[in-house]
TrEMBL record:
Gene3D superfamilies: Uncharacterised protein Atu4866, PF11512 (2.40.128.290)
One protein family per Pfam: Atu4866
Organism phylogeny: Bacteria, Pseudomonadati, Pseudomonadota, Alphaproteobacteria, Sphingomonadales
The protein's name: Protein Atu4866
Superkingdom of origin organism: Bacteria
């Protein structure tokens, strides 16, 4: 399933440590520091809200506001 939406792409923390890529196929891939693919899973977007289901079993969510992604206590900016 391909999700064409305005939020697809790379989102990063200000320090660049966390790199969170929202892929157009409904999957995400998150790098932390030098560890590529530290977390992977699927996501769904409804309006400006995002829900995540990680492949390891945990869930998370977030919200997009004014071009910023607020996710699990992190603030990510579009790259």
């Amino acid at each position: 399933m391909t999700q064409q939406h305005k939020y697809a792409g790379m989102w990063v923390t200000k320090d660049g440590y966390i790199r969170h890529e929202l892929l157009p196929n409904g999957r995400y891939d998150e790098a932390r520091g030098k560890k590529k693919s530290a977390y992977q899973g699927r996501y769904e977007i409804s309006g400006d809200h995002i829900d995540y289901w990680d492949d390891t079993g945990f869930t998370a969510d977030g919200d997009f506001k004014d071009g910023i992604l607020y996710h699990a206590g992190m603030i990510l900016y579009r790259e």
